[in-house]
Design goal:
Shape: globular
Bound molecules: fe (ii) ion
Radius of gyration: 22 Å
CATH topology: Ferritin
Strand content: under 5%
Largest sheet: none
Distance between the termini: 60 Å
CATH architecture: Up-down Bundle
Length: 341
């Protein structure tokens, strides 16, 4: 064919926010290292000794309480797959670094495992072995209290999705994921302590594995933080301060203690049932650590994050619940996006 006779037509202009970049410039080594580590550390909930939970000698209250605890945990962990899936799509649209996209795909995969732990635990422990924390009929007073608490916690978990999705139009990832960083750091310590304290064998393994995942997620979040923070406008720095406060209040329900009224819309009956059930889960061997130990773990996690953000001129919020002074965030500002872990 005569080259001069070739007439090429060209495709129409492509939307730069299309969902798949076919371009893979080399990302920093840490992102590929974390991706490799995630593959090497992949685990399968199916292979864990669930019969040690099924056959455990537990009272009806203790069994209910363990089912309850995972019903509350799944408000966070069952929200994590869509949260990270949405983040992943946004990353592809915005041409985020190849290595970061890869790492986020593994976080999504890990979170499916964490969700599966909640599914298995609630199915084994809640009365009637239901296929979900809301799919059973409570009979005793404690069961009714547990069920009502789960309904309220679910209501709160379900109401933040819209804000989360909208925030992607306003803030870069690293800004949004700052409070995730705090959640991941706190979860790493708390789950590791729970793995040591648990007497039911399956939970000794579960919490060790989940903690290992969370520490990898924390390293990824830290990478994003350090990459993005040097060039942030003040408005975004202010948002981070609020986010850190909102994140703590949100995650406290499961990882520390509930703070009704601050973000959490909860009935007056919530706390008493929650505390009773948490105590029963502890005596059943779930590995719940003391309130003092949970407070210490949070304070340590926050001090790490405080050091990181303050190095970039971002104010850390006051956290009087764990004895930390700082910038006072208004109550209404807690209705910003909230994280999972
Ligand atoms: Fe995580
Ligand atoms: Fe998780």
């Amino acid at each position: 064919m005569n080259e001069n006779s070739l007439k090429f037509s060209f495709p129409p202009k492509i939307d730069p926010l299309n969902v798949f970049p076919i371009s893979w410039p080399e990302s920093p080594k840490i992102t590929y290292d974390l991706f490799a580590l995630a593959k090497a550390q992949l685990w399968d909930p199916e292979t864990l000794p669930w019969d040690t939970l099924r056959d455990a000698k537990l009272s009806a209250e203790e069994r209910l309480a363990i089912g309850y605890w995972f019903s509350i945990l799944c408000i966070f962990d069952a929200a994590a797959p869509p949260v990270f899936a949405h983040a992943l799509i946004e990353m592809f649209k915005n041409k985020e670094e190849d290595g970061v996209r890869k790492c986020f795909s593994t976080i999504l995969r890990d979170e499916l495992n964490h969700e599966e732990i909640c599914r298995k635990s609630t199915m084994i422990c809640l009365p009637g072995n239901p296929f979900g924390p809301l799919e059973w009929t409570p009979k005793t007073a404690l069961e009714k209290g547990a069920y009502n608490n789960i309904q309220w916690a679910y209501h709160n978990g379900a109401r933040y999705w819209e804000g989360y999705v909208k925030a992607f139009d306003k803030y870069p990832f690293a800004v949004m994921f700052t409070s995730f960083l705090m959640g991941e750091v706190a979860a790493t310590t708390l789950f590791s302590e729970m793995g040591k304290a648990a007497s039911i064998p399956v939970y000794r393994e579960v919490f060790k594995l989940v903690s290992r995942d969370e520490s990898r997620h924390a390293r990824m979040a830290l990478y994003l933080t350090k990459r993005t923070f040097p060039n942030l406008p003040q408005e975004q720095k202010d948002f981070i301060t609020k986010q850190l406060r909102a994140g703590f209040i949100f995650l406290s329900l499961i990882l520390f203690k509930p703070f009704p009224g601050k973000f959490w819309e909860l009935p007056d009956t919530f706390l008493e049932y929650h505390n009773t059930l948490q105590d029963a889960a502890q005596s059943g061997g779930l590995g719940i650590i003391s309130l003092k130990a949970r407070e210490d773990a949070w304070r340590n996690a926050m001090l790490k994050v405080k050091k990181t953000v303050e190095a970039y001129g971002i104010e850390f919020p006051a956290m009087p619940e764990v004895g930390l002074t700082g910038f006072e965030v208004a109550e209404e500002d807690l209705e910003t996006i909230v994280p999972v872990f």
